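Quick one: structure for this chain?
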Amino acid sequence: MAAEIRVGTCSWADEALAKAFYPPGLPAGERLGWYAQHFDTVEVDSTYYRLPFEDMVRRWAERTPDDFVMHVKAFGVMTRHPVKADQLPPDLRDEAPVDDRGRIERPSREFRAEIFRRFHEALEPLRSAGKLGGILLQFPPYVVPRESSFDYLEWAVGELAGDTPLVEFRHRAWYEGDQLPETLSLLERLGAAHVVVDAPQVEAKNVPPTVLAVTAPVTYTRFHGRNAGTWNVRGTSASERFDYLYSEDELREWAGQLRELAGQAEQAFAVFNNNNRSPGPGGAPVAQAAWNADMLKRLLAGQPVG
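Got it. Here's what it folds into:
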């Protein structure tokens, strides 16, 4: 049997959701519980900017139903992104190697291992509640396919200590020509899920193509929108970069593709990262991610859309 396809958004706390999804006046502390009445999975992206702490994660577990699943994005240091030292826990800042702009520069494996350890321990409330899905390892465009990258990926997966890795590369060389089967084979060997991406189909090196492949018991699809005009504009915010409202026809096509992926997996997830607002029916603004997630849920269930 095909896996059930769970649909949600990347974050439950984006400004667009606060302004155009939640009821007016809903306290911030009640948003996750309200979100969980509409969707049964979410991707936590705030952990990319700061390490989570256990008390906060425990509140996530307490505010969601028993069958809710939370995927957590790895802290930037874990995926070799530029991170400023002041984003670290205070006790780690003095020992962090930094460049002249205060960014962490070439930390040792021992330093990174401590970050992985703290990240892993903080997620224990979700793990023990059976609500922890995968850990999103989204690598920056300058991580390209070469031996040092293969080595780091294998090491990083080991540092997750049994949690499910969801791997998204941001340089298209991972998915082109003879490299594609090697990439998929590497992920399969590591037990890591290839993250299927929907993004603007342009020739920029930092826009991965859509590759419909399953490399682990979990299949995971992220919808970044198709706004080619804002993807590589310097100085734009995330909401501007991913500013896109999918049409019913676009998601109807994806519903069929997601069913094919789910037929090869034990668990299937689709999350929307288009995090701006758009005019909805009647002109009232809608939160793109939540609107499209609900539309996809209806299409998958064979229900009317609108």
